[in-house]
Known about the structure:
Strand order of the largest sheet: 1-2
Order of helices and strands: HEHHEHHH
Oligomer: single chain
Strand content: under 5%
Amino acid sequence: xxxxxxxxxxxxxSIPEGSVMTYGGIARAAGSPRAARQVVxxxxxxxxxxxxxxxxxxxxxxxxxLTEDESASLQQLYLTGEGVIFDExxxxxxxxxxxxxxxxxxxxxxxxxxxxxxxxT
Length: 121
């Protein structure tokens, strides 16, 4: 597993209930501002294994990016259940709900043993 992948997993795990982060925000916090698509790949391939709160990750416009209606509805249901409010266009107010990890989480991340020496899948 690459250091970037480990950081992304830890950042996603740190998003508190009732908050969201964008794909680009996660990439920036993990040290690679242009790697939003890589964050998408990590979420897709590792959410189950690492029990990631995938529903707390949205796009830079404050919207759900999933195109499958059932998954998008589920994501909105989960976020609404955590107190995140969507406007009539399905947009989340990022000024209000966006989580910004503490600099020490970004810079000096302590990795739990289960994120140690695995290869990327």
